Amino acid sequence: VQLVESGGGLVQPGGSLRLSCAASGFSFRIYSMSWVRQAPGKGTEWVSTINTSGAGTTYSDSVKGRFTISRDNAKNTLYLQMSSLKPEDTAVYYCNARILSRNYWGQGTQVTVSS
């Protein structure tokens, strides 16, 4: 299993970013996928989950209405479109796959929201 996140960076408050997660080594299309994040000095926070077809999505209250999770099963890629970013969104973002009761994460991508 390999998950490779990309798309992070430095953005001003109110700005937007789109994160990507390229998946390989497993049948991407048959697993729900999630994004989680870890802010400096804090624990891991669940952000969003998408079901296998992409038709079902859930979000944490902290990002609901601002972030959109999506997936392209033909490309084995997970996305997170982030808008109206706030300084409190600053964190390392990880995509997550739960396969046979085991969690897998990528190396993460840093998102910094600052003026």
Tertiary shape: globular
Order of helical and strand elements: EEEEEEEEEEE
Number of strands: 11
Main β sheet profile: 7 strands, mixed
Distance between the termini: 37 Å
Spans of at least 5 consecutive residues whose pLDDT stays below 50 are none
Q: Class by helix and strand content?
A: mainly beta
Helix content: under 10%
Tally of DSSP helical segments:
0
Strand content: over 45%
Radius of gyration: 13 Å
Mean pLDDT: 97
Keywords:
four-stranded antiparallel β-sheet
Give a description of the structure.
This protein has 115 residues and is an all-beta fold. It is 0% helix and 54% strand. It has strands at 2-6, 9-11, 17-24, 33-38, 44-50, 57-59, 67-72, 77-82, 91-99, 102-105, 109-113. The strands form 2 sheets. Strands 2, 4, 5, 6, 9, 10 and 11 form a 7-stranded mixed beta sheet that branches. The N and C termini lie far apart (37 Å).
Secondary structure blueprint with pairings:
Elements: E1 2-6, E2 9-11, E3 17-24, E4 33-38, E5 44-50, E6 57-59, E7 67-72, E8 77-82, E9 91-99, E10 102-105, E11 109-113
Parallel strand pairs: 2-11
Antiparallel strand pairs: 1-3, 3-8, 4-5, 4-9, 5-6, 7-8, 9-10, 9-11
